[in-house]
C-alpha cells in the first residue's frame, strides 16, 4: 500500500464515493453506540447526508419527537394494537406482502415504544 494513499468508501445508500474521514474502528464504535442491538451483518457504510436521513427516521429519533410533542404513550400503544389487528386481517387474506410490511411496522413501533418509555 502506498504511504500517502487516500482511503475512500462508497456510500451504500446513494452510491457516491467519498474520502474516509474516520477510521474503521471509530465507525464501529459509533455503530455500537447508536445501534446496540444490531448485528454487524445489518450494518452499511453510508455518507453523512444519508446517515442523517436514516437517523431522522430511527426509533430513537421518532420517540424523541413524540415525547417532545407530548404524544401520549397510551396513544402509541393503541396504534400498535391497530397494527396487530391489520396484521391478522392480512394474514387471513394471505396477502403476504402486506403481512411482511405490517410485521416490520409492528417491530419498528415496539422499538419506538421502548425508546419512549426510556425518555419518560
List keywords for this structure.
120 residues, 2 strands, single chain, mainly alpha
How do the strands and helices of this protein lay out in sequence?
Blueprint: E1 8-10, E2 17-19, H1 24-34, H2 48-56, H3 59-68, H4 73-93, H5 96-119
Antiparallel strand pairs: 1-2
Helix pairs in contact: 3-5, 4-5
CA-CA gap between termini: 51 Å
The helix tally amounts to: 5
- Counting structural domains, the number is 2
Radius of gyration: 19 Å
- Secondary-structure content class: mainly alpha
Task: Indicate the percent of residues in helices.
Answer: 55-70%
Q: Name the shape in a single word.
A: globular
Description:
The chain is mostly helical. The chain has 2 domains: 8-56, no CATH class; 62-119. The chain is 62% helix and 5% strand. The protein has 5 helices and 2 strands, in the order E-E-H-H-H-H-H. The protein has helices at residues 24-34, 48-56, 59-68, 73-93, 96-119; strands at 8-10, 17-19. Strands 1-2 form a two-stranded antiparallel sheet. Helix 3 crosses helix 5 (96-119). The chain is globular. 3% of the residues are buried.
Can I get a quick summary?
It is built from 5 helices and 2 strands.
Amino acid at each position: 500500500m502506498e504511504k500517502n494513499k487516500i482511503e475512500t468508501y462508497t456510500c451504500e445508500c446513494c452510491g457516491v464515493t467519498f474520502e474516509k474521514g474516520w477510521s474503521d474502528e471509530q465507525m464501529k464504535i459509533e455503530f455500537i453506540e447508536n445501534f446496540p442491538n444490531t448485528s454487524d451483518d445489518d450494518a452499511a457504510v453510508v455518507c453523512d447526508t444519508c446517515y442523517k436521513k436514516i437517523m431522522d427516521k430511527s426509533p430513537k429519533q421518532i420517540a424523541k419527537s413524540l415525547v417532545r410533542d407530548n404524544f401520549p404513550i397510551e396513544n402509541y400503544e393503541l396504534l400498535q394494537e391497530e397494527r396487530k389487528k391489520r396484521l391478522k386481517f392480512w394474514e387471513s387474506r394471505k396477502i403476504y406482502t402486506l403481512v411482511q410490511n405490517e410485521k416490520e411496522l409492528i417491530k419498528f413501533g415496539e422499538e419506538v415504544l421502548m425508546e419512549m418509555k426510556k425518555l419518560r
